[in-house]
Design a protein that fits this description.
Number of domains of chain B: 2
Radius of gyration of chain A: 17 Å
Radius of gyration of chain B: 20 Å
Number of strands of chain B: 15
Strand content of chain A: 15-25%
Oligomer: heterodimer
Distance between the termini of chain A: 41 Å
Number of helices of chain A: 9
Structural class of chain B: alpha/beta
Largest interface: A-B, 35 and 40 residues
Number of strands of chain A: 9
CATH class of the largest domain in chain B: Alpha Beta
Chain lengths: 245, 350
């Protein structure tokens, strides 16, 4: 009987530390599937972030290194400039990319570094206990916005892709989600496009994946997926933000 | 064939890096090291290497982290306030055991300070600076020729021990011009294989470059490994110059630029009848405790001279172990100790 579904070769046979219903497992699997399908497992160098995905190298079976919090695109820049024929990508959360690493992501994009960025946006700091992120929705309660996020004092949800679309060095920006099978497949397509853009030497790209955090949203996994579908996409619309590939 | 040039210290440092095989430089403008970043922008292009003017010192040091992990010989340079920003990356590189060369052309501090010469970053360079239990080899050149030679050496040291190495220079040394002699046939030294590098898992298992160790006892074991390496560096790489120390009544201890005034003062004092010698630490970490202890054993006075409030002084006290002999003369915020001031200080302690 033909095997229809199996673990990607790029993924280690290991249970993850992620909470039940977390989106990281989906995102990990999708990018591993893409790397397998592109035959890139032996030529990939990934940069893991500081955040929930800090231990991604425990799950990925290709070369992976760490970066200080937010400096991920700078580290990737160093790797890629030395090894321009490798597939180099960063995997970053919204604290890493949209708060402490804002300068690094914008300038890596503006230089047109030939890199891929997988940006997992769940609107909170997960690893440290569910604090407010720049991407947290208005009205959302977190460990550090106990009276909910209010624009007067905490500002507004930060839309990095919309901010970066006018940068001439940036080739491809797309926001996707994992809240339904259709969106999961669409996310895989976007990751593949980002990696292909890099392998074709066509420059910098980001795939932003809207992802659930049931633990710090205070919802069960199914409710969390519903929240993305009904609430989160209102603030962060799914779709191609820029494509000049 | 040897060729002579007239060069600033900063440009000599850059050329030392190029001759050592450095092909990746990232930096950010800051006075008084700007000659170096400009020089590297030209030389990396000529050598088909990578030059990046980063968006910040934080980005620059982390570009090194990536490029070093990918196997390249890498360098960044800055001056005091910028070096403070690089400390995060230096700690990570020490933890990840990544080789790199970091040049600090020191200026006056604290804070924005000024753009004059100073040695106020000794503690930061030799006692950590960044977080965690790590050490960094720190070479202190005293002239333009050494800016070249020590930078050249730094790359082999960094690779041999898989550790960040700092060139601790200063604004005057960086910007002054002196003759520089270069052997045109010079080749990179100490090239080693880097099987640990992030190159893709072709023909081997996937590997990682990390400083994160979460398993029970794993980080302690990692720290013990690092400390063992640091002990080896202390034994094998401590460098120091002694001058007229045999039978000297006065020993002056000074590093870098200040050692030049100290040497001139020692000559004049000796000529005037006060037998004075000089100990010049070349590595300020590892620090030459034994050499200073030996040289000062029979001396009556051990004078430390620095362009700081007395930072290396603490290491000299540890070496000498006799506070009755210890004296100090320092200038700060751009003040440079003169030969006359040093002589006056020695005479006042007699």
């Amino acid at each position: 009987m033909a095997k229809r579904f199996t673990r990607p070769e790029s993924m280690k046979d290991k249970a993850t530390h992620y909470c039940p219903g977390c989106g990281h497992g989906l995102a990990h699997r999708l990018l591993c599937e893409v790397i397998d399908e592109m035959g890139c497992r032996e030529t990939t160098v990934a940069i893991a972030p500081v955040g929930c995905a800090v231990l991604a190298y425990d799950y990925w079976d290709f070369d992976t290194m760490e970066a200080p919090h937010g400096r991920t695109p700078a580290v990737a820049t160093g790797v890629k400039r030395v090894l321009p024929d490798r597939l180099v990508f960063t995997y970053q959360g919204d604290g890493d990319l949209a708060a402490i690493g804002t300068a690094e992501i914008i300038h890596a994009g503006n230089r047109g570094e030939n890199l891929s960025v997988i940006f997992v946006n769940n609107g909170v700091y997960g690893m440290t206990g569910g604090q407010m992120a720049p991407t947290t929705l208005l009205g959302q309660r977190t460990a550090t916005s106990q009276f909910t996020r209010r624009s007067a004092t905490e500002g507004f949800p930060l839309k990095i892709l919309e901010m970066m679309k006018d940068l001439k060095g940036v080739s491809y920006l797309e926001r996707t989600s994992v809240h339904s099978p259709k969106e999961v497949l669409n996310t895989k397509r976007a990751i593949a496009k980002s990696f292909k853009t890099q392998l074709d030497n066509k420059g910098f790209s980001i795939v932003e994946i809207l992802s659930p955090c049931p633990t710090y949203w205070g919802l069960d996994p199914v409710e969390s997926m519903k929240r993305i579908e009904t609430e989160v996409v209102q603030e962060y619309p799914i779709g191609v933000i820029k494509d000049s590939v | 064939m040897k060729k002579k040039y007239l060069s600033t210290g900063n440009e000599a440092c850059g050329e030392g890096a190029v001759r050592a095989g450095c092909r990746f430089y990232a930096g950010y403008p800051i006075t008084p090291q700007n000659e170096l970043i400009a020089y590297m922008s030209v030389r990396m292009e000529e050598k088909k290497g990578t030059f990046i003017q980063a968006e910040s010192e934080l980005a620059a040091i982390n570009m090194l982290l990536g490029a070093s992990a990918a196997g390249a010989r890498v360098m960044t340079s800055s001056s005091s306030p910028g070096i403070s920003l690089k400390m995060e990356g230096i700690s990570y590189m020490a933890g990840c055991e990544l080789p790199a060369v970091i040049v600090n052309v020191m200026r006056g501090g604290p804070g924005l300070g000024n753009i004059s010469t100073a040695q106020g970053d000794y503690f930061q360079a030799t006692k950590g600076g960044g977080h965690g239990d790590y050490r960094m080899v720190v070479l202190a050149p005293a002239n333009v020729q050494e800016m070249f030679a020590f930078t050249y050496d730094a790359f082999a040291l960094a690779d041999r021990y898989r550790t960040p190495v700092m060139i601790l220079s200063d604004g005057m040394l960086g910007q002054m011009m002196e003759p520089l002699e270069i052997d045109e046939d010079m080749k990179p030294a100490g090239i080693v294989k880097k099987p640990w590098a992030m190159t893709g898992a072709k023909g081997r298992d996937a590997q990682r470059v990390v400083s994160l160790f979460l398993g029970d006892g794993a980080l302690e074991a990692h720290n013990e490994k690092l400390q063992k390496k640091y002990r080896e560096i202390e034994v094998k790489e401590t460098r120091c110059e002694t001058y007229n120390t045999d039978g000297a009544d006065v020993i002056i201890v000074a590093y870098g630029l200040v050692s030049r005034m100290a040497r001139a003062a020692a000559d004049r004092l000796t000529a005037e009848g006060i037998n004075t010698g000089l100990v010049r630490p070349i590595t300020v970490w590892p620090f030459p405790y034994e050499e200073i202890k030996r040289a000062s054993k029979d001396a009556l006075q051990v004078l430390t001279v620095e362009m700081s409030a007395g930072q290396m002084l603490e290491d000299v006290r540890l070496a000498v172990q006799d506070d009755s002999k210890i004296s100090f003369y320092g200038r700060m915020g751009g003040g440079v100790p003169t030969e006359e001031e040093i002589i006056e200080k020695v005479n006042s302690e007699q």
